[in-house]
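User: I'm putting together a small comparison set for a docking exercise, and I want a reference complex before I start. The sequence is below, and the ligand is flavin-adenine dinucleotide. Could you produce the 3D structure with the ligand included, as structure tokens?
Assistant: Of course. I'll restate your input first, then give the structure tokens for the complex.
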Amino acid sequence: MSVKTVAVVGAGWSGLAAAVSACEAGHRVSVFEASRSLGGRARGLLDNDLYAAVGKSVPMDNGQHILIGAYRQTLEIMRTVGIDPDEVLLRHPLRLQFPEGDGIALPDWPAPWNFLAGVLLAKGWSWSDKWSLLGTVRKWKRKGFQCESFATVADLFAGINTEVVDSLLTPLCISALNTPPNAASGSVFLHVLKETLAASTNSSSSHTNARPSDLLLPTVDLSTLFPNAAADWLRDNGASVHLGVRCEAPRWSTGKWLILDQAFDAVIWATSAPHAIQALSDYSLTAPTNVATYLNRWLKPARAIPYQAIATVYAYAPGLQLPQPMLALRSSPQAPAQFVFDRGQLGGPEGVLAFVVSASQGSREELQAQVLAQAHIQLEEFLNGQTLTALQTVVEKQATFSCTPRLVRPPQRIAPGFLACGDYIYAPFPATLEGAVRSGMMAALALEDMDGFHWKP
Ligand SMILES: Cc1cc2nc3c(=O)[nH]c(=O)nc-3n(C[C@H](O)[C@H](O)[C@H](O)COP(=O)(O)OP(=O)(O)OC[C@H]3O[C@@H](n4cnc5c(N)ncnc54)[C@H](O)[C@@H]3O)c2cc1C
């Protein structure tokens, strides 16, 4: 291996994973991040002005996140930078239960027995509901969890009773793919099920006791969960991390790539797709023809990516406690939240809830009002007559790509010595932390074979 100077642009989870992996491989790494905080779309919010409302500081994130035991590389890289996942993630066997207790809760057993028992003991489903699910999952398994590339998730649900679709599969699809079942990719959904429900414990990380299907809920803010420790680890290992530095697209100059007038052997571009498109489109207008050809080839699929929003509504009622840290909610266009998290049970102050609206639509104010109304109806028995007050609502308009059938993802290589990473690059996953981390690690690996990757006329 030859030691290279590498610039990583963007310090979200993918950029930091790429930087840590490249640094571990012995390269000289510089990270540039436009914002003053680390973590990108999975970050703690630095300034929140909620002390007065709640009486203590309220750690919040740009959006409530869930990790699962199948996030092998994420859990591994957390360990690398000195974070013990068991200390910062609350592990629980998968359960999707509603406030009244209906739904599914897997026992802490190995697969497939946990899923089988979870379905047979699920509350609120008839025997016909349960058989319809088990029969269909058996069919998916027989086909190796594969389907036609054009199939939507809704197509896969044919033959499963409505109660199971509404109370389990639709919330699973929306939370995992952030795309409604009638528009979501069947093959990505089946891949997620294969990696979680159907995977044996052996295939979960060797660094944790978690089973692949376990829920891992952060008990610290998202920047503390990995990004801050990754930046400290990078500095301790000789890399530089520059915050508040927005980069324009690198410029090609006599065998090197220039970032802010500094020459690098390679660049890993780790911003979100919309930011990458903006920077590369600008440069493609002035770049030498051969460089512009590479940029335009990469830009074509990138420009075709559709997006979905996610909103998180933080609300507060003194002393409020839910029966579990996470509950599913009955959602509809007028009651848009699919899940609620009790942040008091996740390291935050008692009484603070986070409501998640995946694939959200409408304005911030509208969503907030709808979610509060939904909460007062569906969480009535826990509120004891109290009123929930909204603390803050964060809407991430381009939270994730819309995970539609046959979506063409842009490739990892933009041009010789110029690589892309991010949740939108890595193919078998939807937009997730694990997809982002794996894509970052793969970009770092690709630095090794750059010598065989020459300019073509
Ligand atoms: C509200 C919300 C909820 C989510 N929930 C979940 C969940 O429960 N589970 C899950 O696994 N995933 C979830 N995701 C998805 C997950 O957060 C993303 O897939 C992941 O964070 C993407 O990381 P990334 O590094 O690819 O991109 P980003 O996080 O977008 O990182 C890109 C970075 O590049 C920086 N940047 C941009 N332009 C420049 C420039 N010109 N120069 C320098 N820096 C620049 C940005 O500031 C940013 O820090 C959620 C996302 C959102 C928004």
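Residues 321 and 454 are 60 Å apart (CA to CA). The chain has a mean pLDDT of 92.
User: Thanks, that's exactly what I needed.
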